[in-house]
Amino acid sequence: RPLAGSAALPLMDQDDSPMVEIFTLFPHESATVMQRGIEFGIVCSSLSVLHCTALVLWAPDAGCWDGLLRGLCLARIMLAAPRPYFWVRTRRLFVQARCQPTPQLVTQRLLDIYAHPFGLERGLLLFYYAWLGLATLLVCVLRCDDPPSEDLSQEQPSFAQHLWKHCLLNYAIVVLHRVLCVLLFYHLMRSDLRRGIQPEVLEKYSKRVSFRRETSPKTEQNLAGDHE
After folding, report:
1. Cβ-based neighbours of 82, under 8 Å, separated by 6 or more
2. What is the pLDDT along the chain (228 residues), one digit of tens a residue?
3. Phi and psi at residue 144, in whole multiples of 5°?
4. Sequential DSSP letters for the chain
5. How far apart, in whole angstroms, are the C-alpha atoms of residue 162 and residue 170?
6. Is the CB of residue 106 less than 8 Å from the CB of residue 31?
7. Alpha-carbon distance 160 to 171, whole Å?
8. CA 189, 193, 194 angle in degrees (round to 5)?
9. pTM value > 0.85
10. Rounded to whole angstroms, how far apart are CA atoms 186 and 138?
């Protein structure tokens, strides 16, 4: 990953995608949304993993398929363990991007983060989406094949039923995360956000030079004569 002081690549060399256009037109709004999105994702993902852990520990087994579903949950928990490390590092990068002195530098930092993602984190994210789709498919098949019990008052929810609710919770988190990020971006676009160079940065890197005209008495007499 390039350092913060590395030479900036021309914007035309970046991938011409909607994200690049948004970063260029709305650098401060984008940096804020990306940072808050990471923070909200940390909270929601942590709650999801805790719920999955509770399923593995306390949900009952009602059949041979429940062992397979429990194994899927264990794989999801183990592969989610390294993700907080990348979340913290990515959040730190977005905070650094927000602290850049000019909008152009904010844009360049965002493009740098966008062009150089963490490979392992991307792989773990793809595994999560694949796991969610596979778990949903298996649970749907098991729910269709499971005959309803005659005595509903004494029926205990199976592991598949618990996992079905967990999958719905994950889908709700994904949708809610996207909606909140869009709403936050819309709010920042319409708010009175300072989008130029910060006054303290301008004061720090500006140099004030005082000019004083020194004139001799003879020159002052000539100037006075000219005015007369």
Report:
1. 120, 124
2. 443 333 334 444 445 678 888 888 889 899 999 999 999 999 999 999 999 999 998 877 666 778 888 999 999 999 999 999 999 999 999 999 988 888 889 999 999 998 888 899 999 999 999 999 999 999 988 877 655 554 444 455 678 888 999 999 999 999 999 999 999 999 998 887 666 666 666 677 677 777 666 655 555 555 455 444
3. -75, -35
4. ---TTSPPPPGGGS--SHHHHHHHH-HHHHHHHHHHHHHHHHHHHHHHHHHHHHHHHHPPP-SHHHHHHHHHHHHHHHHHTTHHHHHHHHHHHHHHHHT-SSHHHHHHHHHHHHHS--HHHHHHHHHHHHHHHHHHHHHHHHHHHSPPPS-TTSPPPPHHHHHHHHHHHHHHHHHHHHHHHHHHHHHHHHS----S--HHHHHHH-----------HHHHHHHHHHH-
5. 13
6. yes
7. 16
8. 135
9. no
10. 38
Rounded distance between C-alpha atoms, residue 56 and residue 44, angstroms: 19
Structure tokens belonging to residue 55? 């399923």
Angstrom distance (rounded) from CA 148 to CA 138:
18
Establish how many alpha carbons lie within 13 A of residue 92's alpha carbon, considering only the half-sphere containing its beta carbon.
Answer: 7
What tokens were used for 61?
A: 């087994």
Q: What is the residue type of 184?
A: L
Interatomic CA distance for residues 176 and 172, integer angstroms: 6
Residue type (1 letter), 113: I
